[in-house]
Amino acid sequence: MGMEKRDTDRLNTKNLLDYVVVSAGGQTLDHGLGRTLDVSEGGLLMETPVAIAAGQTLLVTLGLGNDMVEVSGRVVRSAPSTGDFFATGVEFAAMDGRRRDVLLRYLAAFNGAIPKS
Questions:
Q1: How many helices, marked H, and strands, marked E, lie in the chain?
Q2: pLDDT at position 110 over 80
Q3: Is 4 domain-assigned?
Q4: Helices (H), the chain
Q5: C-beta neighbour count of 45 within 10 angstroms
Q6: Residue 100 sits in a domain of what CATH number?
Q7: pLDDT per residue over 38-76, tens digit each?
Q8: Most distant pair of Cα atoms in the chain: their distance
Q9: Which end of the chain is more exposed for a tag (fewer CB within 10 A), N or C?
């Protein structure tokens, strides 16, 4: 495996998520279900049944209890994973305070403490 380029620590998680592939004009190109493999404040690695091209914009919906948060991001890589699945790395775009708060709670639930800001 290559050199790590992450600025934030990632937590290993396996939770279902919903994703939408969005065109530059904001139109839905594809959508599906996947699961997180790891997640941080800066992005996530998810497992999907299809490869998603690097550079694509995604809207990913993550859930924590009754809270749902939709985060936007850019696919940085997608490669074969286990079985018929693909590991897709997503770098999050800037997010507003509410989304960031829910994401921090999501991370804290798996870490047992509030993540670094």
A1: 1, 7
A2: no
A3: no
A4: 97-111
A5: 19
A6: 2.40.10.220
A7: 888 899 999 999 999 999 999 999 876 677 788 999 999
A8: 39
A9: N
